[in-house]
Amino acid sequence: MARIVGYIAASLDGYIADPDQNLDWLTQRTDLELGEHHYDNFIKSIRTVVMGRSTYDWIAADASPWTYADQRVIVVTSRPITDPKGQLETRTDIDALVAELRALDDGDVWMLGGGKLQMAFMERGALDELEIYVISEILGGGIPLFPPTGLRAAPELISAKSLGAGCARLHYRFP
């Protein structure tokens, strides 16, 4: 059975992007020392990437090449995607998708992007682990790590680690 995991960065005040959906506050940091937790190591363990439509549209609008050619990509959306940027599949039913992902046995699943889809999985008890990289930056607004849905949960903190002066890694497991 595949593990369904989150791997995401957030500002100290809990945002994953600034009000303009910009990630410069994260991508232009030179003081991050991720070591074994670096994205390049993480992505090697991922067979399936799941993202919401907003995340896909943000990635598709970027001029850089499609970076998920080595993974199965599923976009959760109710609207058709014409001329997709990369090889992908679409799904509309989250409950059916959770069952489909749980049946996989070829590698882990990454919930890529914003907290909205991760929250939908958490509400269904379908997120196994979550790595949050808290960046020493206060944005003052933007897209929140998790949208308010009323969900109350108490994940187990597996580890907390300083990764240089600019980042802390929080690793949680959901019961």
Textual characterization of the structure:
The protein is α/β, with parallel strands linked by helices. The protein has one domain (4-173): Dihydrofolate Reductase, subunit A. It contains 5 helices and 10 strands, in the order ββααβαββαβαββββ. It has helices at 24-27, 39-44, 53-61, 94-102, 115-123, and strands at 4-11, 15-17, 46-52, 72-76, 89-91, 108-112, 129-135, 143-144, 156-162, 167-173. Strands 5-4-3-6-1-7-10-9 form an 8-stranded mixed beta sheet. A two-stranded antiparallel ribbon has the order 2-8. Strand 9 (156-162) and strand 10 (167-173) form a beta hairpin.
A few lines on this structure:
Helix content is about 20%, strand content about 30%. With about 180 residues, it is α/β, with parallel strands linked by helices. It has a single domain (about 5-175), classed as Dihydrofolate Reductase, subunit A, CATH 3.40.430.10.
Shape: globular
How would you spell out the order of helices and strands?
EEHHEHEEHEHEEEE
Q: Report the end-to-end length measured between terminal Cα atoms.
A: 16 Å
- How much of the sequence is in beta strands? 25-35%
CATH class: Alpha Beta
Number of helices: 5
**What Rg do the Cα atoms give?**
16 Å
Largest sheet: 8 strands, mixed
CATH superfamily: Dihydrofolate Reductase, subunit A
Reported by name, the CATH topology is: Dihydrofolate Reductase, subunit A
- Stretches where pLDDT is under 50 for at least 5 consecutive residues are none
In round numbers, the mean pLDDT is 93
In percent, how helical is the residue content? 10-25%
User: What's the number of structural domains?
Assistant: 1
Strand adjacency order, main sheet: 5-4-3-6-1-7-10-9
Please give the CATH architecture: 3-Layer(aba) Sandwich
